[in-house]
Amino acid sequence: SFPNSKKIPNAVLQTAQLQERVGRLQEAAKTYQRYSSKFQSEDNAPWALFKAGLVYEKLKDEGSQIKIWKAFISRYRKQPGVDSKIVEATLRMADIYNAAGSRKGAIKFYGKTIEEFVKRGLQPETKAAGFAAKAEFALIESRFKRYKGLKLKGSLANQGRIIKQARKLMGELQAAYGTLPKYRAYDWMIAALYRIARLNELYAKLFYGAPDPPGVSDRGMEEYRTMIEDEGLRWENAAIQNYEIAIKQARRLKIVNKWTMKLRTTLNRFKPAAYPLFKEEKRRYDYGTGFNVPLTTQPEKKAPEPEVKTESKPKTEPAVTPTPAGNKKQPTPPSPKAETQPTETPTNSIPVPVDDIPVPGESI
């Protein structure tokens, strides 16, 4: 046999890393793939295949990314020590479909992300929990968009039907967002608290934007407008209270992300003196940590190569789970110190398609 045969795997891997370092990304991706296929008994073979997917991400080659993530899941789904990476690969596919506007593909793989997290018995407050929380949040967002699009129009009776529909959907969404703290993925807990407050604000705006219904007398119209404005004000006050609860939790957990920026911007509209705006750094979602990290133009420090043998658990200070807003039938103006009641656990699950999804660009 070749005298240095034991050194060949390491040489191939070093070649891939060098190709990536000098910007020969297509070659690097293929070399990583070749390493993972030819040297499957090596401990870092799963890492090499995963690395190929990350290189294709740099190339913005969505089709190749999808193929790599599917191959990774198929090849290593039963291998010990890669549970978190299986969840991450599934989430990455969902994000690709979501970015491509493929709702069917996004729903399928966000749902599978949660399924993989649950069936593998992974724990809260881990990287994998952050992946599952992001997936669940994304699934809820499609219903949030429908809620956000509701507007009052038409007759008094028709407006009443829309208000009833909005109230029902708001309660369902509050309950859905209220389940996210179970993951103890703090970025997404804050996102959920922001959305719960936003639900209240949008409900208030529904009343503020109500058109005058036809066929109502002048006196009746005056009473109607007063009632509408009062109802809007009650829900606006509830929204402000919940925004303040959310930003208090974010400060306690020392979280800065796009949701805390939204919180401060929103509260500045209502209470500019109490919540002045400052220039805040931009951040991006980091799959490696499951959290949002700063964007920087400075060269990144070289980090150690990721391990795939064992699950890692980020060292996070213990924190008390924030309590989401409740869904009361008759809202009343909240006092500044009042706390909202927790929502009930949702009973209806989100359906996940089981049919195969084509790569973006292929016909559906």
Account of the protein in words:
With 364 residues, the chain is mostly helical. It has 11 helices and 2 strands. A two-stranded antiparallel ribbon has the order 1-2. Strand 1 (283-286) and strand 2 form a beta hairpin. Helix 7 (127-148) runs parallel beside helix 9. It starts with 7 loop residues before the first helix and ends in a 70-residue tail after the last strand. The relative contact order is 0.11. Mean pLDDT is 82; it is low at 295-303 and 306-364.
- Report the average pLDDT across residues: 82
What order do the helices and strands follow?
A: HHHHHHHHHHHEE
| Strand line-up across the major sheet | 1-2
Low-confidence stretches at least 5 residues in length (pLDDT < 50)?
A: 295-303, 306-364
Number of helices: 11
